[in-house]
Amino acid sequence: MSQKIQPVILSGGSGSRLWPLSRSMYPKQLLPLVTEKTMLQETALRLNDLSVDVLPPIIVCNEEHRFFVAEQMRELGIKNPQIILEPVGRNTAPALTLAALATQEKSSDAVMLVMPADHVIDDIETFHKIVKQGILLALDKYLVTFGIEPNAPETGYGYIKTGTQIKDSACLIERFVEKPDATKAQAYLDSGEFLWNSGLFMMTAVSWLHEIESLNKDIFTASTKAYENAVVDNDFYRIDKDAFEASPSDSIDYAVMEKAAGSGATTKHKAAVIPLNAGWSDVGVWSSLWDVGEKDAQGNVTKGDVALHDTENSLLYSSERYIAAVGLKDTIVVETSDAILVANKDSAQDVKKIVEALKKQNRDEYQNHRLVFRPWGSYECIDRGERYQAKRITVKPGAALSLQLHHHRAEHWIVVSGTAQVTRGDEVFLVTENESTYIPLGTKHRLENKGAIPLEMIEVQSGSYLGEDDIVRFEDIYGRSGSK
């Protein structure tokens, strides 16, 4: 039997409980929260040195994150990843169906290892050992998941009750259990029969596609149509939006795994679980980051420019400014350029309520940082007032903004370093260091960096409305089009 693994990385989450560092346009999986590499990069590297044939990853991600994902894979030197873009979120079952269809095309005998992009696993040697055990079960037509051996009565995770032992440490799954209250969680821990539900899975593409078609025909049909009608756009596999929107939203657990568990399962493939004790965390909340972080003698985890006095068991994360903490206990403090979070560790789950409130108020802090990345570079708002806004703009060598216009604002551009090629109406001209130009309201324009060094400039906008949605695009090398 072949032992070939197709990594499938699901990167569709928004990480709202790790606000203000994680934002919907730049979520936690794209951030270096635990090591110097991002969580997505650590996931992509997790199968290195497995001594099994590992294919280039299939990554299913939000369309808005596509350039970040591609760039992070390029930084790792990973060649030919297949990046499948979800035009809308439909949970993990449709996402896995897309990946299974892609796997079937690439290598029908490969076993899919399905990994969320935002988990931590410290003990890679143990993880590899368990993955190899999972390959054999998947090839034997089991739907395999990995259950984390619990060390506390955790109420934030779902649980798996283990059933009959199959081989080595693997067992059939008797049933899945929703997140319990504290009393039930303690009973589950004391019984020794329950594992935390990790969200990691192994199965062949054929096994998954058979069961999703049998158990949820609507997901199978919509995902298949969306995949078959996809177009290749640069590095990306852009599935058909209308077809995918028709898919029900459901998780891997609800759509298939729970129906394949227990003695009453009528599925062709049975659900199995392998216990995993490899330093796993889903880093879902700030208290989880404290759990996995390196602590000082007083139990504090710090990052950035931080000073402490009489402070215990706290997490302090500085992005830009100096944080001084005095007399804190069990407290989370996270600083970014435009927001500061202060929370008790026991209330870390409730951070998402702040994000929900920001979204209802239509405040940009829920989705963007002050420094916003684009495929051509980045921009940062450095000042704002009534009818004006100033930005610092960086354009990468060889990059270009779209040909666009604005209905409500004019722009002044001042070049700080590098050389800008400017299109303004019918004119095309160069603006060099310490020079400036003006883009009148309603004028088609484009900014390009034809040079070998980054272009740094200051943009001053003035007008009645300065929102980012006042953009009408006519041409764009990155596949963005129309009004934003």
The proportion of residues forming helix, as a percent range, comes to 10-25%
For the largest sheet, list the strands in their spatial order: 21-22-23-30-25-28
Distance between the termini: 51 Å
What's the multimeric state? single chain
Give the C-alpha Rg. 25 Å
Output the number of helix runs.
Answer: 11
Uncertain segments are none
Largest sheet: 6 strands, antiparallel
Name of the CATH first level of the largest domain: Alpha Beta
Average pLDDT over all residues: 93
Q: What is the total tally of β strands?
A: 32
CATH fold call of the largest domain: Spore Coat Polysaccharide Biosynthesis Protein SpsA, Chain A
**What gross morphology would you assign?**
globular
SS-derived structural category: alpha/beta
Give your account of this protein's structure.
This protein is 22% helix and 35% strand. α3 crosses α6 (205-215) and α3 (92-106) packs across α7 (217-228). The mean pLDDT is 93. β22 and β23 (388-395) form a beta hairpin. It contains eleven helices and 32 strands. The chain has three domains: 4-281, Spore Coat Polysaccharide Biosynthesis Protein SpsA, Chain A (Alpha-Beta Complex), CATH 3.90.550; 287-356, no CATH class; 371-483, Jelly Rolls, CATH 2.60.120.10. It has a six-stranded antiparallel sheet with strand order 21-22-23-30-25-28, with no helix packed on it. Strands 7-10-8-9-13 form a five-stranded mixed barrel. It is globular, with a radius of gyration of 25 Å. The protein is an alpha/beta fold and 484 residues long. The protein starts with a strand and ends with a strand.
